[in-house]
Amino acid sequence: PIGAPIVGWVADHLGPRWALGVGAAAGFAAALVALGMLSRANAAAGQRSGHGSMPPAE
């Protein structure tokens, strides 16, 4: 809902190629943010569960 008016404005002023580029850049940025959040969540879950790279102490 927020991106459509922005991409429409870009298309009106700069052309459809730029509008597609802005949409692609937004999707790529969202994917990078999601990837970072998932990697942090997986690292934190591994740390909490005790399943890590350290062998058990004897």
Descriptive keywords:
rod-shaped; 0% strand; mainly alpha; 58 residues; 79% helix
SS-based class? mainly alpha
Quaternary status:
single chain
Order of helices and strands: HH
Cα shape: rod-shaped
Computed CA radius of gyration, to the nearest angstrom: 20 Å
User: What helical percentage do the residues reach?
Assistant: over 70%
Protein name: Major facilitator superfamily (MFS) profile domain-containing protein
InterPro entries: MFS_trans_sf
Transmembrane segments: 18-38
Keywords: Membrane, Transmembrane, Transmembrane helix
Overview of the structural elements:
- With 58 residues, the protein is mainly alpha-helical.
- The protein has a domain at 3-40.
- The protein is 79% helix and 0% strand.
- It is built from 2 helices and no strands.
- The protein has helices at 3-14, 16-49.
- Helix 1 packs antiparallel against helix 2.
- It starts with a helix and ends in a 9-residue tail after the last helix.
- The mean pLDDT is 86.
SSE layout and pairings?
Blueprint (H helix, E strand, L loop, with lengths): L2 H12 L1 H34 L9
Helix pairs in contact: 1-2
